[in-house]
Amino acid sequence: xxGWLIYTKADxxxxxxxxxxxxxxANKQSIDLTLRILEDISIGIQKNKQVIYYxxxxxxxxxxxxxxxxxxxxxxxxxxxxxxxNAAIISETFNHKAQAYLAMHQLGINVPETYFFPxxxxxxxxxxxxxxxxxxxRGKGGSQVTMLHNLKEWEDYKQTCVEDYLLQxxxxxxxxxxxxxxxxxxxIIAAVLRSNANDFRANYSLGGTPSLYPLNKAEKLTxxxxxxxxxxxxxxxDFMFTMDGELIFNEIEDVVGSRTLxxxxxxNILKAYVSYIKEKMA
Length: 282
What we know:
It is built from 9 helices and 16 strands. It starts with a strand and ends with a helix. The protein is an alpha+beta fold and 282 residues long. The chain folds into 3 domains: 2-85, Rossmann fold; 92-110 and 173-281, D-amino Acid Aminotransferase, Chain A, domain 1; 114-168, 2-Layer Sandwich (Dna Ligase, domain 1).
């Protein structure tokens, strides 16, 4: 069995140790996993046939682990008979926050008050009272999340907004605290609480402190409801907390990392993920 591990060039450099770990775990389970750089991949239709080229040569694999946000690439690979982890529908739905919120609302999952806008549209007056949070719809890692406190900050923000975005109320949500639930297939692997006393964003990359978190029965049922509705490979399901301590949906990370999980535990999530891939490909 042979597969591809697809990264952008920049991400492949930044995540070298993770990539080496992934390939090593695959080798241990008799899977030939090869790193492929996105910038060297060309996909399209040639002579009425879908093709994929890598560095100018036509190639094929049994499966691909796509570690970049590229739903079109994932969709073409699937249509060519290559199994993709995570599937194209997962990439398409959960790498756009508005689509993710709509999907979760359809499941009856608790979501915050949120409004969606295309990047070239901004209302003259915002639909929320100040302060409120702006989020780039395709942003990751908390870097495109901003708290807007007054009309001037809103006017300045509108001038810089060139992509789809969300406006979200912070009311009844605990600041600087969120929960990431690591999922492989239909199994909850672990949950990590991230806390930041100095920022309303709890991301580990922005100074959040991680700790293992034991999910209670109600929280497990909420996560399971999401898991049952989708065919996930490896994802991180992120929640915030209401002031009453209940989970409220934040986002699903399709290209999820596991630095926080490795920091707080000795859980080998890639061993579990490779086992899941092997099982799905059997």
